[in-house]
Amino acid sequence: MNIAIILGTRPEIIKMSPVIRSCSDHSIDYSVIHTGQHYSYEMDRIFFHELELHNATYNLEVGSGTHGAQTARMLTGLEQILIDDPHDAVLVQGDTNTVLSGALAASKLGIPVGHVEAGLRSYDRSMPEEINRIVADHISDYLFAPTETAAGNLRREGRPDSGIFITGNTVVDAVSQNLSIAQRDTSIFSKLSVERGGYVLVTAHRQENVDRWENLSGILKGLRLVRDELGVTVLYPVHPRAKKMIE
Questions:
Q1: pLDDT of residue 31
Q2: What is the maximum alpha-carbon separation in the chain?
Q3: Which is the catalytic residue, given 38, 54, 205, 239?
Q4: C-alpha distances out from residue 208 to 11, 212, 222, Å
């Protein structure tokens, strides 16, 4: 068995790290194919380094672009890799353009596809992520649903029970496995001049949160209230998308 693990963004690296480690632990041959959807050090390589993962076997380095252009470059590159280096199965995770491209490229080549974190739904088709996850779920052969609710969504959409597996969410495994790494290196506290238990950590970058001024301004106002009411430091590692919109 030779598995291609296709990823391309920060959350995919984090959430697939337990799968990568499990393949190594069970002596399963695998390749990590990185599309390069995220490509800066802070959004990409730092996670391979800090999670103690080997670098990707392949990197397409597609970079940013419109959804159509980015997806097209990924499809072309992934198809060629999978033709030149055949694999028995492909794994994708989540709802990014990388997931859509990986699932499409593999299914067109007749390679079985497994979708990790299958069955999640927002029921908001204005979100590009919703389109990606729906399409990926309907062309995947193995649907690894994190919850019974997610599995129910798949059944209601006509996906067969035989291909649905309730596995839990790999982000839980990632937290558990990576705690020991975090505990070994506590330099971040001195670097940011904060103390354990004395800060709030925030993330916000989804299109529906940061591309709409009324939503983004409400989030920022809420963070100021948290800071003032609780008297704690708010740490917000700003995604490039959110940074651009804030500016």
A1: 97
A2: 58
A3: 205
A4: 18, 6, 17
Identify the burial level of 214 via C-beta atoms within 10 angstroms of its C-beta, where 0-12 means exposed, 13-18 middle and 19 or more buried. exposed
Share of the chain above pLDDT 90, in %: 65
* Alpha-carbon span 207 to 227, nearest angstrom: 24
- Residues 93-146: pLDDT tens digits? 999 999 999 999 999 999 999 999 999 999 999 888 999 999 999 999 999 999
Reported residue count of the chain is 247
In this predicted structure, the answer to whether residue 54 has a pLDDT above a threshold of 60 is yes
What pTM value is reported for the model? 0.83
Q: What is the mean pLDDT of residues 51-73?
A: 87
Alpha helix ranges (H) inside the chain? 10-25, 46-50, 67-84, 97-108, 128-139, 148-156, 170-184, 187-192, 207-210, 213-230, 240-246
Q: Is 205 an annotated catalytic residue?
A: yes
Asked if 215 contacts 245 with a C-beta cutoff of 8 angstroms, the reply is: no
Please give the torsion angle defined by the CA atoms of residues 67, 71, 73 and 75, in that order, rounded to the nearest 10 degrees.
Answer: -170
Closest CA to 23 of 118, 107, 88, 98: 88
Q: Which two tokens stand for residue 10?
A: 């920060």
